[in-house]
Amino acid sequence: MSKYAVATVGEIPPGQRKIVQVDGRSIGVFNIQGEFFALRNTCPHQGGPLCQGIVSGFLSATTPGEFTYVRRGEMVRCPWHGWEFDIKTGQSWWDPSKTRVRTYEVTIESAGEQPPAADVSSASTDVPPGYKPGPYTAESFPVTVEKQVVYVEI
Ligand code: FES
């Protein structure tokens, strides 16, 4: 298996998706409440662009007329003929024993090495000529900028 960087985490906010090309395959990468999932963007029915379809959830009812909407944002409906698939597993729900769409492993990693944190205590020694440090010191904190990257394994 090979791992491909397909986006930064910030490029795919919760509830959104990004269609990417990886090694000749079209793949939809979805962010469901901060978790990332990848599906082949080819519908098992007739090859429609599955991952471009409407994203929805399930309606669940215990009695007629009373229903609840569950698993919001976890189902995708193919734009060609409406077959629905579970984004997390690729499972279909009209023929679950036979039909599913290919899924891929998704990982999130930091990009590159982080530079060493600045030594804040040494900053006070950089006193310009003619200046004298005052008696007070404001509290300061180390700051790092991390870039999280979404990887898909195929
Ligand atoms: S091609 Fe997707 S439902 Fe027909």
Structure in words:
The structure is a single chain. With 154 residues, the protein is an all-beta fold. The chain has one helix spanning 120-123; strands at 3-8, 17-22, 25-32, 35-40, 54-63, 66-77, 84-86, 103-110, 148-153. The strands form 2 sheets. It has a 6-stranded antiparallel beta sheet, with no helix packed on it. Strands 5-6-7 form a 3-stranded antiparallel beta sheet, with no helix packed on it. The N and C termini lie close together (6 Å). The structure holds FE2/S2 (inorganic) cluster. Residues 43, 45-48, 78, 80-83 line the site of FE2/S2 (inorganic) cluster.
Tally of individual helices: 1
Please report the total strand number as a whole number.
9
The CATH topology? Rieske Iron-sulfur Protein
Radius of gyration: 24 Å
| Main sheet characteristics | 6 strands, antiparallel
Strand order of the largest sheet: 1-9-8-4-3-2
Full CATH superfamily name? Rieske [2Fe-2S] iron-sulphur domain
Order of helices and strands: EEEEEEEEHE
**Class by SSE composition:** mainly beta
End-to-end distance = 6 Å
CATH level-two architecture:
3-layer Sandwich
- Taken together, the total number of domains comes to 1
Ranges where pLDDT stays below 50 over 5 or more residues in a row are: 117-124
Let me know the average pLDDT.
84
Heteromolecules bound: FE2/S2 (inorganic) cluster
Please write the CATH class name: Mainly Beta
Form type: elongated
